[in-house]
């Protein structure tokens, strides 16, 4: 069964990075023009779904073509060794 990723014309990467002070995930991405933040990872994914197609169409030559987007969450923590 195909999930559509094998038919994608290009692949993009989006990192959801947790900002402890602000209490939000913010984006780092290779999608031109994509900037956003959300309080939960699920809301972040929804935001990427809403914004990424337009940013890709407006800022690349891939408008109307299938693209794969990998979304990865990252949270850095500092712990004291026991």
TrEMBL record:
Q: Where is the DUF1902 domain?
A: 13-74
Q: What is this protein called?
A: DUF1902 domain-containing protein
Recorded superkingdom: Bacteria
Q: Tell me any Pfam family this protein matches.
A: DUF1902
The record's InterPro entries line, in alphabetical order, gives: DUF1902, TTHA1013/TTHA0281-like
């Amino acid at each position: 069964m195909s999930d559509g990723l094998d038919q994608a014309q290009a692949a993009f990467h989006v990192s959801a990075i947790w900002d402890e002070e602000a209490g939000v995930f913010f984006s780092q991405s290779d999608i031109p023009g994509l900037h956003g933040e959300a309080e939960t990872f699920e809301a972040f994914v929804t935001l990427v779904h809403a914004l990424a197609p337009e940013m890709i169409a407006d800022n690349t030559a891939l408008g109307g073509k299938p693209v794969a987007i990998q979304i990865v969450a990252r949270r850095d923590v500092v712990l004291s060794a026991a």
